[in-house]
Write a structure and sequence with these properties.
By secondary structure, the protein is of the alpha+beta class. Helices cover 18% and strands 40% of the residues. The longest helix has 8 residues. It is globular.
């Protein structure tokens, strides 16, 4: 499972070996806090309402989703979501999506609520 680390400057998502295969070989995704447009904790991250339906990656309906979701739409989402594990849903500011390669990140982490709370006071949300 991907890990999420927040410091004073950025949110860093470190990918595991399989997730790297679905993300062009990248080992991590880094989003400066100033580039976060909104953040929310999601209780059911494998639902289509959160991830969309078109994908490149692994999807076992209702269980796990890893890879790029949102094919056929203008929104590119990097998803690493597992059933029963809440997720941090980050939306990046316009302009930064070109550098990151994604408009949104949906990452399952047991601490999603706590992490979203840490980011919200900074003016995002």
């Amino acid at each position: 499972m991907a890990t999420v680390h927040i410091d004073a400057h950025a949110v860093t998502v470190t990918l595991n070996r399989f997730e790297r295969l679905c993300c062009g070989g990248r080992t991590r995704l880094v989003v400066p806090r100033s580039e976060i447009a909104s953040v929310v904790a999601v209780e059911h991250p494998t639902r289509a309402a959160v991830t969309g339906v078109g994908r490149v990656g692994l999807g076992v309906t209702g269980v796990i989703k890893i890879g790029r979701w949102g094919l056929g739409t203008s929104t590119r989402r990097w998803v690493s979501a597992r059933r029963w594990v809440p997720a941090l849903h980050l939306v990046v500011r316009d302009g930064f999506d070109g550098q990151l390669g994604y408009h949104e990140l949906v990452i399952s982490t047991p601490d999603a609520g706590k992490l979203a709370g840490e980011l919200a006071p900074v003016g995002v949300g």
